[in-house]
Amino acid sequence: MSFDPATLTFNEAGLIPAIAQDHATGEVLMLAWMNAESVARTLATGRVTYWSRSRQAFWAKGETSGHVQELVGLHVDCDRDTLLLKVRQTGPACHTGARSCFFTKVEEGEEVVTA
Amino acid sequence: MSFDPATLTFNEAGLIPAIAQDHATGEVLMLAWMNAESVARTLATGRVTYWSRSRQAFWAKGETSGHVQELVGLHVDCDRDTLLLKVRQTGPACHTGARSCFFTKVEEGEEVVTA
């Protein structure tokens, strides 16, 4: 079946969460949001393009930072309301400079920064 | 710093997306939603408990299916608006019987079912 981004299930704002995972290490790097056009652009260009909820604009990841995400594989979940992107990440994925955005771990009730 | 679920950033429905990842293989299994009380219950019991948006009720994963998720680690992202759960998954994570919910892959414009 040919894939049409319009057949995904978007929330009331027209967005779907997209998980970015390092294709080689399996590390989960970040979660951001896409609209149908973001998904189409990502597939057409091979560069991951989110929708920035704060800026209300397309967000071609790494456009200004150079920390681009090259799409290796796109997966859709069973409910068609979440995407999993396998990516080749250049530099850190997180705006803080950390490789992954998930660098805070909860250990025995305490927050521990691991990066 | 001690961790308080109330300090997370929830959406307008009081929910935060939670990614479940197999702690051993790195496979991303599913994404579901939690409210503050789900997070607290998950930490208190060591069993992952989501909030079911369709049933509007707590969803102790595996309660009926037996396909429980034992919490191995809980990570918070930089914006405090997404959780990453490292889990020990018993049986399939997906209600379809697939190990992961992300069994549909987009390849050269076509949807390919990989499980």
Automatic annotation (TrEMBL), chains A, B:
Record's keyword annotation contains Repeat: no
Q: What does this protein do?
A: Catalyzes the hydrolysis of the adenine ring of phosphoribosyl-AMP.
Localisation per UniProt entry:
Cytoplasm
Which Gene3D superfamilies does this entry report, sorted A to Z? Phosphoribosyl-AMP cyclohydrolase
Main enzyme class: hydrolase
A Gene Ontology cellular-component term: cytoplasm
Which domain of life does the protein's organism represent? Bacteria
The UniProt record gives the binding positions of Mg(2+) as 77, 79, 81
Q: What name does UniProt use for this protein? A: Phosphoribosyl-AMP cyclohydrolase
Q: What is its main location?
A: cytoplasm
Organism of origin: Rubellimicrobium mesophilum DSM 19309
